[in-house]
Amino acid sequence: MSREIVAGVDGSPESLAAADWAAREALHRDLPLRLAHAWRWEPIDLPLIQDRASQERVADAVLREAEDTIARHYPTLALTAEVLSDTPVAALIGTEERAEMLVIGSRGHGAVAGFLLGSYGQQIIADATRPVVAVRSRDGDPAEPPTGHVLVGQLGSPEDSAAALGFAFATAAARGASVRAVRAWSLPALYAYSPASMRLADEAGGLVPYEEKALREALAPWRERYPDVPVTEHVELGSAGQVLLSASGAAQLLVVGRRAKRGAVGPRIGSVAHAALHLAPCPVAVVPQG
What we know:
Helix content is 40%, strand content 23%. It has nine helices and twelve strands. Helix 1 links the parallel strand 1 and strand 2 (33-38). Helix 5 (158-175) crosses helix 7 (207-225), helix 6 (195-204) packs across helix 7 (207-225) and helix 8 (240-246) packs parallel to helix 9 (271-279).
């Protein structure tokens, strides 16, 4: 089954920025783009009175505005647009069977960190089985992101980060960009490292060489698969979120992995992804493991 990039649009500047980013990514990857607007009939109580036909016309107008804008800016792009009769979360998740990735808008910086991405966006990222890219607009202008590297966080074992690394290398290859792979590490608390892991660290010459070796091993299969993609490696002491954010200023895309987590109040996206989504200056791709 052929893949496509799916962008959710709702008429906001953020969603138009997301659609613009998705259009350029679709051209980079030689894939079609599908614009999706979620709407279903919801009666509105007084004092606002709208019948179903009026709401339907508004939904169609939102979609057509985005479609016309993208078609005008990218006339060679294979483009489709569809109103999906469902809630925003269910509608976008329902497109995953054919989606290479989902692209959504993000409001970015703000005063209340927990609400910057929006509840719909956080739930889509938490529930998705495909990579989700969050894009913010800059003063309402869907500007071209900086022409920098693709920054990716490598955490845990090679298997833990394989999906994120694979997405980062594929994106860099499609764009003719380089990859900067970052591994953050912390000084172990007493007894935090097993005797076996400490022995491996000793054999590597210390904790820093041990972490550098772990990063090289995680990158090795992707260097082999994408030999034309330049790669730089960076290992730094600190929390993963802080280290990635400090390195994100020159990136055109930040890629982080996500484990499937479920808390007491529903799905969770993880602290590293949460920090990246709300504070990184560039678009952020969250890639589920496995």
